[in-house]
Design goal:
With 169 residues, the chain is of the alpha+beta class. It has one domain (3-168): outer membrane lipoprotein receptor (LolB), chain A (Clam). It has helices at residues 3-15, 28-38, 83-88, and strands spanning 42-49, 55-62, 67-70, 76-80, 94-105, 108-119, 122-131, 136-143, 146-153, 164-168.
């Protein structure tokens, strides 16, 4: 996995966890959900559609102490990245947020927000769906010409037994 691809995957996964001051029009529920989701172990399935329309699916599992990434080839990698590290890494990230309304995900009511994350020269526009449990259940976004759609599962967070170490913090 290239350094740029790894950074894009990590930024996409953590964009929903960014904690800097959000725009005043962003409801307190979104702010709280960003923090709550960022502190909760989660399994995320990410569908990427590149500029040519080719789709690939990856998966990440974030436990309290480690992040696991399954590439489109099915191979799992582990990184010694704790939830705290992901949150700490976003302290210099610029974020704007706007509440966009209500929707449903898997039959459950959710509030929707649009967020824009800028980290250096990398820009990520996302829409997040926040459940009544104050957790992000879905996100969609774009970065570097690709579209990403992610589903979040907080109930089934089981790390893979065989993952190749990749480094981290």
């Amino acid at each position: 996995m290239s350094k740029h691809a790894h950074r894009a995957l990590v930024l996409t996964a953590i964009s929903a966890f960014a904690m800097p001051a959000l725009a005043d029009d962003c409801a307190s529920a979104a702010k709280s959900a960003l923090v709550n989701s960022g502190r909760t172990p989660v399994s995320v399935t990410i569908i990427k559609t590149d500029a040519q329309g080719k789709k690939s699916t990856t998966r990440t599992i974030q436990t309290v102490t480690n992040k696991y990434v399954q590439t489109a080839s099915g191979k799992w990698y582990s990184m010694n990245i704790a939830i705290k590290d992901l949150i700490d890494d976003t302290k210099t990230t610029q974020v704007t947020c706007h509440r966009r309304g209500a929707d449903t995900v898997n039959g459950d009511p959710v509030a929707t927000y649009e967020i824009q994350v800028a980290d250096g020269d990398v820009m990520n526009d996302s829409k997040i769906w926040v459940s009544s449990k104050n957790l992000i259940t879905k996100s969609e976004g774009s970065m570097a010409g690709a579209r990403y759609s992610s589903g979040y599962d907080y109930a089934n967070v089981t790390p893979p037994t065989e993952a190749t170490p990749m480094g981290g913090h």
